[in-house]
């Protein structure tokens, strides 16, 4: 497993893609409301990226047909955008990978549609907290297991399930580079973190403590096994001498 360490210039290029992605998510936040469809959001994202001289890396990736992954409620990851209007109380996760002149940034974010139940609000809060707990561990000399352990502990404290098969990953010119970044782990184990590594940290949690999921026949859509709500928060980060730098903030 050869891990690519990025130069200062290469991290700058990934950051440029990340800034476009962050701006796109800020715009999406304003769009999310009852009545809009995820297919409309998908079309908006593709148009937005084109206006920034960027492209959606997901579209065509291993045959994936859309510019975004749009996952609603018990679809916890890799959902297909569709024509069904979002309803008040839904959770929708929009996951986007931006390609800017061959360099990639990846960020998924969960949004509440209108007022949420207390249970759904708590799921979003805990999952987002776990993201930053994981990022806080991403210092040179630490290990991948330290990131995963911090994420796992936040889920266990809250009685919420970690979707173990879905993991973060290295990123740069390719969408998935080594190493994998699981959302569980043992401190001081796994790949040692080094300056120049660029990775995604992306906890995916489900209400209920099992984290069990299944893949639909399309080979992409991941649903919770018991129909529980899921959430995902993801940033692309660079590990530098002074610690983690979020490139998609």
UniProtKB/TrEMBL annotation:
Organism of origin: Paenibacillus shirakamiensis
EC numbers: 3.4.11.18
Co-factor binding details: Binds 2 divalent metal cations per subunit. Has a high-affinity and a low affinity metal-binding site. The true nature of the physiological cofactor is under debate. The enzyme is active with cobalt, zinc, manganese or divalent iron ions. Most likely, methionine aminopeptidases function as mononuclear Fe(2+)-metalloproteases under physiological conditions, and the catalytically relevant metal-binding site has been assigned to the histidine-containing high-affinity site.
Cofactors demanded by this protein: Co(2+); Zn(2+); Mn(2+); Fe(2+)
An annotated Gene Ontology molecular function: initiator methionyl aminopeptidase activity
This protein's record includes keyword Isomerase: no
Reactions performed catalytically: Release of N-terminal amino acids, preferentially methionine, from peptides and arylamides
Keyword set, alphabetical order: Aminopeptidase, Hydrolase, Metal-binding, Protease
CDD domains: MetAP1
Enzyme class: hydrolase
Binding site for a divalent metal cation 1: 95, 106, 234
Positions annotated to bind a divalent metal cation 2: 106, 169, 202, 234
Subunit record text: Monomer.
Every Peptidase M24 domain range: 13-239
Record SUPFAM superfamilies: Creatinase/aminopeptidase
Protein's UniProt name: Methionine aminopeptidase
Binding site for substrate: 78, 176
One Pfam family hit: Peptidase_M24
Function: Removes the N-terminal methionine from nascent proteins. The N-terminal methionine is often cleaved when the second residue in the primary sequence is small and uncharged (Met-Ala-, Cys, Gly, Pro, Ser, Thr, or Val). Requires deformylation of the N(alpha)-formylated initiator methionine before it can be hydrolyzed.
Family to which this protein belongs: Belongs to the peptidase M24A family. Methionine aminopeptidase type 1 subfamily.
Top-rank lineage group of the source organism: Bacteria
């Amino acid at each position: 497993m050869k891990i690519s360490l990025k130069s200062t210039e290469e991290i700058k290029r990934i950051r440029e893609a990340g800034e476009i992605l962050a701006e796109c998510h800020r715009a999406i936040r304003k769009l999310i409301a009852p009545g809009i469809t995820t297919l409309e959001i998908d079309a908006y994202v593709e148009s937005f990226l084109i206006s920034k001289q960027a492209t959606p890396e997901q579209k065509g990736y291993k045959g994936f047909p859309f510019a975004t992954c749009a996952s609603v409620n018990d679809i916890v990851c890799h959902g297909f955008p569709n024509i069904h209007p979002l309803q008040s109380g839904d959770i929708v996760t929009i996951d986007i990978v931006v390609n800017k002149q061959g360099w990639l940034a990846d960020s998924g974010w969960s949004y509440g549609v209108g007022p949420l139940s207390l249970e759904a609000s708590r799921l979003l809060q805990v999952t987002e907290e776990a993201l930053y707990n994981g990022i806080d561990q991403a210092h040179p000399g630490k290990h991948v297991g330290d990131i995963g352990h911090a994420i796992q502990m936040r889920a266990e404290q809250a009685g919420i399930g970690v979707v173990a098969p879905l993991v973060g990953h290295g990123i740069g010119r390719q969408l998935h580079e080594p190493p994998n970044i699981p959302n569980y782990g043992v401190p001081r184990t796994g790949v040692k973190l080094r300056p120049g590594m660029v990775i995604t940290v992306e906890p995916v949690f489900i209400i209920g403590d099992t984290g069990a999921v299944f893949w639909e026949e399309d080979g992409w859509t991941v649903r919770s096994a018991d129909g529980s709500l899921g959430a995902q928060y993801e940033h692309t980060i660079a590990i530098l001498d002074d610690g983690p730098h979020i490139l998609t903030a």
